[in-house]
Amino acid sequence: MTASDFVLGFGKAGWGAALLQATLMTLVVALTGYAFGLLVGSLGAWAKIKGGPLLRSIADAYTTVLRGIPDILVIYLFYFGSSAVLTPLARLFGISGFVSLPGFMAGALAIGLVSGAYQTEVMRGAYRAVSVGEIEAAIAASMSGSTMFRRIIAPLVLRHALPGLGNVWQLVLKESALVSVTGLVEILRQAQIGAGSTGQPFTFFFAAGVLYLAISSLSTWLLRRTEARLRLGMGRA
Amino acid sequence: MDIPFLYETLLKLLTGVPLTLQLASSSVGLGAILAVMLALARLSGLRLLIWPASFYVFIFRSTPLLVQIFLIYHGLGQFHAVRASFLWPILREPYWCALIALTLNTAAYACEIVRGALLSVPPGQIEAARACGMSPFTLYRRIVFPLALRHALPGYGNEFILMIKSTALASIITLMEVTGLAAELISESFRAIEILIVAAATYLFINFTITRLVLWAEYTLSADLRPPPVTQRQGGSL
User: Which of A80, A99, B83, B120 has its Cβ near the most Cβ atoms within 10 Å?
Assistant: First the structure.
């Protein structure tokens, strides 16, 4: 056993448990952001496909801007920007000092807003892949709009969108590392804390890298399985 | 809206643009060389070359760039051997660490773009070149690389924009590019929203310009795909 094994161990002086807990936090913040992004993305795709000129140009501006600026700026916007609004508000209630959205909320909102821009494009592409014949058949079977959406469009769009959504998830996972700037104790922040207090930065950042690698490999495997399962109904030429 | 403040902020942030552009273009340039080598290794058909190259791409694409930056900037100093080596004057500078991390990172993504582009070269063209008796070097220089370049250009344009955005992370290891300056201004004035909007606009403008430049390059390089220009003749009877 070398000293570095000990530092990452699960004993009293080990950081193993703390790192695993931080991994959980990474997963939770990434999943929350991703779910929010899915919602925003569906709305964005709907606006781009079915919206009028105004909605469409809003959605276009949204995807262009959010995909054109660094993610860290969006996180700063929610974290510091919210303090610009909340700090004066808190002073009214007699609370002084720096008041901001909690790191978790700022991070999840920022991830959601950024990934929503990518998911908009993924969903839009998937919708266009649904063949006109299937929609016509649904209309011919006199399905109402909502039934058609629930039974025909949503399942088909999801199927076509899955590879793209998987890519966005991998992006979100890596983006979640940026939330560490708000002080939220996820993998990278925990590694920074560990590195600072033990003086072994390489060990800790290496461990962080391995944890991200593990989550990303696991998600790749899960996504591949789901894709294979969903493709059962789609004959391949 | 406080126009003078926004203008003043813009002027301050613009001083960070050269560093942002420099970081992005040097890392994309150096990364391209590495990417071509990695792509050739992956296409070599030799397991001894394919595996390390694939492993490299896998590692660098599945971990966050910020972890890679920290590993190089903070991590390497843990080893006495590194601190004692001749590389230390480079590895302790945040600028070089950011540049190294960005280069290694973009090389992994670009490797896949280059690989796809090399695979897209029609076999007929390569066969024709061989039939003309070209040596492998000439074949690559005259046929494969020019054709692959056209195919890689749109993907590479995207990668360049991604790198512009990635350079923002260099601010976390104290580099004063656009985001670093914005963070500094925020801590001085606490006017986060205005400053961040100006910073976002700066990045958008850079990326917009790059998109146009890439489109222009694509247009110039694809002269063979365009219909020949129609010339109107005087007195036009044929």
Answer: A80
